Amino acid sequence: MAEKRGRTKTEAVTTVAEGVEPVGDADLAAALPESLTIDVELPAPVHERPADEQAVALLDSGVDPAIVGAVVGTVETGTTVIELAHDELHAVVTTPPTGDDPDADVEIPPLPQTDGVYSRRDMLDGVHQGPESAAMLTADRLIEPRRRNRTAPEGRWPAFVYAVTFHLVNIGDSRRVRERKELDAKIATAFEGGARFVPVLTRKGGVGKTTITTLLGMALASVRDDRVIAIDANPDRGTLSERVARQTRATVRDVVNRAPSIQGFTDFSTLVSRDETRLDILASDTDPMLSEAFDENDYNVVADLAARYYSIVLTDCGTGIVHSVMRATLQRADALVIVSGGSVDEARLASETLTWLEANGYGELVREAIVAINTATQGTNLVKLEEIEAHFASRVRQIVRIPYDEQLAAGSVISWRDLRPLTRQAARELAALVAQGMPVRRGV
């Protein structure tokens, strides 16, 4: 057996080392080992993970459940590290490395382009070929410009032209209609951030302050989509509720007493009267003793509830300018309406009201105030109204004349539709000025 193994090795050496001087079989057998082992080091298998899997890969190391407070493991970058510390599972996602510089910007590949999403101009220019996408079915492409607005124009002549041309010629609304719509847009100004408070006041009674409050509220409520309320805060037994058809005997005192039980607008609406323009009116106390007891704290309760359900709160303040209710009213005021009559003493007292307000820290309200001159009072025909307007123009933002109207002079229920057109127009102008003077957003 040993001899056979020697011949095999001799033949192998002779074959491999051909041309080398041969050696003896005995010497070759003695030089070779009994066995030959060759170790070959092969490269370890490498399993690369895709980039999206590396971003959410967990650690390969196991977690010992007995060691809750220990950190499972840490890696430098490119993986997600899970830490178990004090019964909290905390995952830390690190950013994949971008190179040697850690501050280097990461290049974000662009989103793939979807076939078929292109503009009509690209198709017309021959940049893209093939079927159109749904995004190309736009209104600008499909609707003819002259047929987009099919609203019939308002006004006699525009409506006539629109009719005889079989709706092919639309010259637009008449000038008067355009002015009316522009005024409606001003009155309907939307407000953000809570209710807006507008006190209506003067130092002299009998100048039509309650009437102006009612007209202003009706003009606002007839156009706006939100709610408008007028509160009678007159401590001398106000008559605001007598300007509309009264639907309840509740007063501001009932609101104060029932405030804890009022949970929504349905509960509050049972305490107010609503007219045809959707103006809500909250009456004052009919008992003079209770009216005098209506103080600053009571007004704040009523005002807070009204602010929940109404966008504009008008306050008929009465003649008690130094009454405690006046202080609470002015502190909430976003706009101010001063009422003046057409006589000398009425105009002078209205001007003194502005002076009192400026002296008590309400100068900004005075500069943005609106003066409503009621020309239905006695002595108007003997006074130069232009001079009164010139005086107030130097102190306030705007002046509006309220013309004489038989329905207003009667001192009874006011019907908005039965007022003279000039009276409604003056009330609408007053409402537009008030709405435009208040901040659209709270704090602006």
Short structural description:
The protein is of the alpha/beta class and 444 residues long. It contains 18 helices and 10 strands. Among the domains are: 41 residues, no CATH class; 248 residues, Rossmann fold.
Overall description:
This protein is an alpha/beta fold. Among the domains are: 133-173, no CATH class; 190-437, P-loop containing nucleotide triphosphate hydrolases (Rossmann fold, 3-Layer(aba) Sandwich). It contains 18 helices and ten strands. The protein has helices at 2-16, 25-31, 51-54, 120-124, 139-142, 156-164, 175-187, 209-223, 252-258, 265-269, 288-293, 296-309, 324-332, 344-359, 363-367, 385-393, 406-409, 421-437, and strands spanning 80-85, 88-93, 196-201, 228-232, 273-274, 279-282, 312-316, 337-341, 370-374, 398-402. Strands 5-6-4-7-3-8-9-10 form an eight-stranded mixed beta sheet, with helices on both faces. Strands 1-2 form a two-stranded antiparallel sheet. Helix 1 (2-16) crosses helix 2 (25-31) and helix 9 (252-258) crosses helix 12 (296-309). The longest helix is centred in the last third of the chain and has 17 residues, at 421-437. InterPro entries: CobQ/CobB/MinD/ParA_Nub-bd_dom (IPR002586), P-loop_NTPase (IPR027417), ParA/MinD_ATPase (IPR050625). This is MinD/ParA family protein. Residues 202-343 form the CobQ/CobB/MinD/ParA nucleotide binding domain. It comes from Microcella humidisoli.
